[in-house]
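Narrative summary of target 7.
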Amino acid sequence: MPTTHIATARYPAAAATVLKMMTDRGFHERKLAAQDLISSRILEHEFDGQHFRIRIERKVPVQAPGMIKKAAGSETTVVSEERWNLATRSGRIDVTTQGMPVEMSCEVSLADDGNASVYHQQWVVSARIPVVGGTIEKFIVSDLSNRAAEEARIATEILRDYG
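Modeled conformation, tokenized:
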């Protein structure tokens, strides 16, 4: 049974401004540079003014408990594809990890909230590994939560340049 995780971030700007940032390749480059990654690169990027898509490859350190670290190693390659529809202010993120039979997807949305906006993520994580799958899912959800908080902090700093 997949594990679901909901995360939200509040940004001190209107949703239109935050979406302008999130659909800018330069934002993603700056965000990647500010994260604790071994390496990263943008594989593909498309934006037609209404629909945005970006594929990013990250090599990330794995700081996991024993049995998970045995399966994943000390680092892993993660490829994410993020899509946004500007008209609906919603999108989807799909993530694959090298060497791990894990599926991750996330429905995202952005909404105004007074003078601010709220970024909503609903993650679904599924590890197809007998016996330890649930443990791996819980570890990934915990890691997602930590990374989401870090990304929100970095994005809030970068957002100042989009006002």
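The longest strand covers residues 102-113.
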